[in-house]
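# nightly structure sweep
# worker-07 picked up a monomer target from the shared queue
# config: single-sequence mode, recycle default, output format = structure tokens
# input follows
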Amino acid sequence: MNRHYRMSVALDVDDLLLECIPYAIKLANEKYKFNPPISIHEVNRWGKLGSRADVIFEYFNQAEFYQNQPVIEGAKEFVRKLTKIAEVFISTSIPPEFMGIRAKRLMEEFPEIPVENIYMGSRKDKINVDVLFDDGMHNVFKSNAKYPILMRRPWNQDATGMLAVNNYEEFLKLLEVIVKSNSYLETESLSNPSIVCLVGPSGSGKTKVAGRLIKMTDKLLKLQSYTTKDPTSLKENDWYNYITTEEFRTLLDNNELFESTMYAGHGFGSKKEDIVKILNSGKNVLTTMDICGAMALKCHFDNVIMIYIKRDRRTLIESILKKKSTIEDKTNRILAIDSEKSNISLCDYVVYNTSYDDAAKEILKILEIK
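# output follows
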């Protein structure tokens, strides 16, 4: 892919461009006078929940609902910016009887998107584009797009191992990094001070490899990220500052975390000031992150070296099965293995982890650290 390649991007509509679940909740609260009102956080997964929130589904069979869905704040400006840098398509799932209403709304609200680029139907895996941007975890998992990206919403917080963003701005930054990673043949090299980020699926052993690196050289200092207590860990990990869920949310609300992500329903984040402190000391930063955190680093810092830690599938699954977690969590982590492998192309190097020491030694060779 060369410097002038124009990426194709398919956008979902409901809860990406037009309000869907929040709007249905608003209508339900107005009609039924729930006390307390239904909160969007009660819709913590897609589909009927067997709770009072299921009342929102009655609106999905009403033409008036689709006629009046509010445009999400910032959506029009987002589409205008995106159409300047990519070929934009719409991929929307909607009952056939309401397709005409949806098409009319899209043409009115987002005239920058050509009519011939609007596709309707639930088989989003049939859309052949570079990037799919969707809030449906199932659509992202099944997508054939090279870079399926999830828009974080309360109903997909358990999503694991996929590219994900929290808003339009983050998506545009991520797309910029993706384009850049596909536009140059050169890989990043270590030039002091730098940030070395180990990336890989659950069970890849990236944290243990990082631990070996710290013992082998004094030219790398580990970054301690912030996380809520991990119920799947067999013991506490000294790569993290463990905080409560409330403390984590406070850091998010105060914009103290320059990157944050959910992994199997579990929050992780890093402070920019912690990274800057290490860089200012003249040392190189060593950290382990999922692909979302690593891409956030790329967006905020120069000379970030991303190294993908690869392990055979059987070993990955065995490691996941040993975790102290629910069947659902283990299933999500296993399902994410293939999604995370698709992130290899975003990394600068790939290191096979057949043993922690050998993987660490290979990384030192790559970084030219003796």
